[in-house]
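Quick illustration, no need to memorize.
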Amino acid sequence: MMNFKSIIGGTAVLVLLAISCQKPIEEGTIPDEKQLLENPESAVLARKLIKNSDEVDISLEEIQSFQNNLNNNEDIDGPVFGKFRAVLYRFYKNIKIENGQMVPIKTSAKEVGISPTIFNFYIKDMERLNKEVKAMGIVKDDSSMAKQIEEYLNALVDPTFGNDVFLKSH
């Protein structure tokens, strides 16, 4: 049974990941789970892109446009959102948790399968997220943080994953 601090810590990490959507482009953009669950077409495209060995790329301008759509509650499904999901999945699938901090397992864009620009963008954002997590003192258990990130990754490629649990909690 997970203790209360582990649950809160893991949830706080997801909240920090979701909060990135509301930050300026320089600080990163990560969609919240509700947006992911409501956009099944992009999840299908993301799964296809993830399985393909080709590099997945999305421009910083597309990320900015995507963020503007999120902020204005506009429709965000489609090819750009599918690529965005695939990029996030590939990047965050290749991190591990050490001492409450996200650490890249693979250290190059080529190894992860995303463009160098986007890889460097998310490496920089991961450093920011790690600082916020550390400053808040919310993660005491690496395994619970890793589990929360794994659930988020599952939501990126399967919009029905955790749908009942998520909707009941909001």
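The CA atoms of residues 69 and 76 lie 6 Å apart.
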